[in-house]
TrEMBL record, chain A:
Protein name: DNA topoisomerase 6 subunit A
Cofactor annotation: Mg(2+)
Catalytic residues identified in the record: 162 (nucleophile), 162 (o-(5'-phospho-dna)-tyrosine intermediate)
A Pfam family annotated for this UniProt entry: TOP6A-Spo11_Toprim
Transferase is among the record's keywords: no
Keywords of this entry: DNA-binding, Isomerase, Magnesium, Metal-binding, Nucleotide-binding, Nucleus, Topoisomerase
Domain Type II DNA topoisomerase VI subunit A all-beta: 198-234
Catalytic activity from the UniProt record: ATP-dependent breakage, passage and rejoining of double-stranded DNA
Residues noted as binding Mg(2+) in the record, renumbered to the chain: 248, 300
Spo11/DNA topoisomerase VI subunit A N-terminal domain: residues covered: 133-194
Role, per record: Component of the DNA topoisomerase VI involved in chromatin organization and progression of endoreduplication cycles. Relaxes both positive and negative superturns and exhibits a strong decatenase activity.
InterPro entries reported in the protein's UniProt record: Spo11/TopoVI_A, Spo11/TopoVI_A_N, Spo11/TopoVI_A_sf, Topo_VI_alpha, TopoVI_A, TOPRIM_Topo6A/Spo11, WH-like_DNA-bd_sf
UniProtKB/TrEMBL annotation, chain B:
PANTHER family: DNA TOPOISOMERASE 6 SUBUNIT B
Summary of subunit composition and partner proteins: Homodimer. Heterotetramer of two TOP6A and two TOP6B subunits.
Family to which this protein belongs: Belongs to the TOP6B family.
UniProt: ATP binding residues: 60, 160, 181-182, 190-197, 516
Stated name of the protein: DNA topoisomerase 6 subunit B
Reaction it catalyzes: ATP-dependent breakage, passage and rejoining of double-stranded DNA
Ranges for domain DNA topoisomerase VI subunit B transducer: 398-557
Coarse class of the protein's main subcellular location: nucleus
Amino acid sequence: MADKKKRRRPDSDSDSASQPFKNLLKSDDQILQILESFTSSFSSSSTSKPLTLADLALSTTCREVSDLSLSSVQSAIESLVLQLTHQILSGQGFSFTIPSRSSSNQLYVPELDRIVLKDKSTVRPFSHISSVRKTTITAKILSLVHQLCLKNIHVTKRDLFYTDVKLFQDQIQSDAVLDDVSCMLGCTRSSLNVIAAEKGVVVGRLIFSDNGDMIDCTKMGMGGKAIPPNIDRVGDMQSDALFILLVEKDAAYIRLAEDRFYNRFPCIIVTAKGQPDVATRLFLRKMKMELKLPVLALVDSDPYGLKILSVYGCGSKNMSYDSANLTTPDIKWLGIRPSDLDKYKIPEQCRLPMTEQDIKTGKDLLEEDFVKKNPGWVEELNLMVKTKQKAEIQALSSFGFQYLSEVYLPLKLQQQDWL
Amino acid sequence: MESESPVETKKSKSKTPKKAKESILKQKSPAEFFAENKNIAGFDNPGKCLYTTVREFVENALDSAESISELPMIEITIEEIVKSKFNSMIGLVDRERIDEALYDDYETAKAREKRLAKEAKAQEIQAKNAALGKKVKEHAVSKAAKSRGEASFYRVTCKDNGRGMPHDDIPNMFGRVLSGTKYGLKQTRGKFGLGAKMALIWSKMSTGLPIDISSSMRGQNYISFCRLDIDIHRNVPHIHLHEKRDNKDKWHGAEIQVVIEGNWTTYRSKILHYMRQMAVITPYSQFLFKFVSDTPDKNVTIKFARRTDVMPPVPVETKHHPSSVDILLIKRLIAETSKQNLLQFLQHEFVNIGKPLADRLIGEMGPEFSPKMAVKSLTDQQIVRIHQLFRQAKFDDPSGDCLSPAGEYNLRLGIIKELHPDMVATYSGSAQVFEGHPFIVEAGVSVGGKDVKQGLNIFRFANRIPLLFEQGGDVVTRTALKRISWNNYKINQTQDKIGVFVSIVSTKIPFKGTGKEYIGDDISEIATAVKSAIQQCCIQLKSKIVKKMQAREQQERKRNLSKYIPDATNAVYDVLKEMAKSNSSKKKRYEEGDADILRKVSDHLITKETLTEKLTQHVEKVDYEMALEYATQTGVREEPREDIYLQSLDGKGNFSDFHSPIFVFRLFL
């Protein structure tokens, strides 16, 4: 794998004018050396076992779920249903006690560098007009998951929704209750045997087994390999990459995949095409944990880029109950950072003015603990809110479509310019 | 109103260069100008002419009655006059057509064939529909298209109980354009002060018939009767008859009658809307509207009854605010003033300039100005300097005291009276200022009601008259449609019947366009005031709506809860069934209490029906408890009722009114 490096060095003298900073680039070998030393120092430093809630003596005040076997999920549902039956038969109606996933029940734990769920719960009684619908949906989802357990099959969230469209009305409702159910049962969503349609893709120097088949991600063509929704069937990861490159957008991913960037600088390229789904987050975490590689993120220079980055890093509020499994610690913000706009002289016509909403999101982000803990990020975000300008990764295309893969990224790597 | 004369001079100036050679310098009388540009005053086409005539008469009548603090009682009659009747009125013999092909509406043989074929087809379809039992739509018998010659004529009569006019002034009040009593800076109805004169010009243009005026003033023992038309070229009245008649009934007021060309069919709804909206904004007046024609089923008689006897005060004339005047106006004020020196002039001809400020202003004007200098001796340059200073200096805002808003009380009564809404809220803003003119925005929002269509129904009023045309660009329409998030107030913008009433009064309404039919959306002061007024109403409504929703929730709770029982029991029972299976096959062990249940499930002692029944019982119990709780919390309370209005028998009582936004306290002395 390592020998198949396709070196496609363009003529360096012809287009240095149109591709600024190209002359600053050292030879690839030199850059590789820099990277190698970084990676080796990185993997040696990150050997320590990650902290858990129990280590911080927070396990009583915070809630966390774990992977449960199918049979234990089944018994959990059964004992819950028996409880309900007792309640109904005694003429009290029935109700669920569901951990609250509202933002007031979230806690950012700096030691863990992720969001966790606090222990507040809400009671969802059947005989109340405001909760009757959700209670019924919860019962329905429980019964559906129970069936999945009995039959030992996986279905998608969409399948689940279509079992009773009339009751669920739209998929958002059944999806939300599904999260409630996994939270209530104390298991991860994957343990419920419900998966989301695959969204993420991976390409580059990675070999792994998916349901028993060996996959070589350098030989997956341009599109790469879709990230399998069942992380429990993924294993045997091997790689000679020096880092993992996390890309926000599909377009940038395609550019890098087509230019076979991973051959020039051995790496694994991953994207979830926007907001990351559970499968991609699980996959990224698994790669990071097993391969011990640094993760570098390439996102848009706007508040949403940083938000996506934070979801990978600290978890989303919606699924904070499972943040232990879903988050990937220590992701480096490689670009495009607000300071890059001037540093790389991105022309004015490629920058976009931030809307009111953008600026508000940016200011809200500045209040978030997971941003505050990183002074470099705060500085960048302040700069963004101040200049009121944003730029997408594609803004680099103003210097030529391949500027991203041929100048910008190599230069960034060479300078170890990440936060 | 001062803008009229410049318009005219400009017009004659611009005409001159066009006919460059051997052109004779022509003078145009104001009457001629308006005859040629009648669209400015709202006389665009026969239909609009009929509408504008009615509205000018109604507004004059209201002004007249309000000026003597008399509760207005106005009768408007529109009488359709068919062509033959019209011809006999003017003494023209009705002639049969001899050369049919000469006429515009002559039907050629080909066209006739086509029409007959079409009619046959339509009949066929209708027969088919009837056979299929579909609701048969009344097929409009295709009338022979009205040709250009086939004008309809109407006699418009308007009778009021107002001030009336002095006998000798009547000819000049009607027969001379741009002469009037309403000039001056105050809140006025009407658009140009042209009033009935435009109607007269239009009648002269379309029918050639004169106008009849009867009038009597309070305590006058005769009625003045005057029949006149207008000499358009000389802008002077042309009197046919001017005499005094008996006044047996001690009537005072005016009755005006004019015969004009119009179009009732197309403007029927506009005229009725106008009357209805006028009734909303003036609930203290009584209108009797009649449409009379030869075909009785087309006749309309509507009485808009009086709902209150509290009238807004008569708007008072005010002085100009220094930041609202232009150079021309300063010159006019100088020409008209009785004050001798500059100091007195500043102090007395403008609002918000006291003596100290006047002194300071004169000091600021420059060394060639002094307080004692004769105001009439000011040069043009000096006047420009004064104007510049007025523009830049800071003055207190004019107060809204000179304005006469409809008042929340009246607006509310008007809305209730005409729309019978389920809910209504009103709000009256404080006076604000735009370009030196004070304005007040009042708003009402109603939900539900009769004859109200779903969605937003917008009623706009400027200086207490309804605005019906050019709704799209108006500040009120745009605000209501785009800047109010109705959802926030639990109002459904598309489903609910929402009435939005906004009344703006000002000494100068900043109309847009020539027709003076709408207020532009570009004045942020007004847009903000309108928005906040509507929002205030919505906030009031929200709490009422929430209460109603709670009450409805009470009623529907049982049904809404019961709806979900089958789904819930199914879900629980499905799991139980599976568990019972594995329990009986000993696949899994359960605790004793649980195993007991599961055995009962397998023995069909516990079935889906058992669960349903238990859950239903529970729902009923909960519903009963909550209904009880709701009843104890809210108490048994009926909706407050609106009192009916009884007109007092003795109207001449000596009393004074104390106004508050929600009620009026009347003290009889």
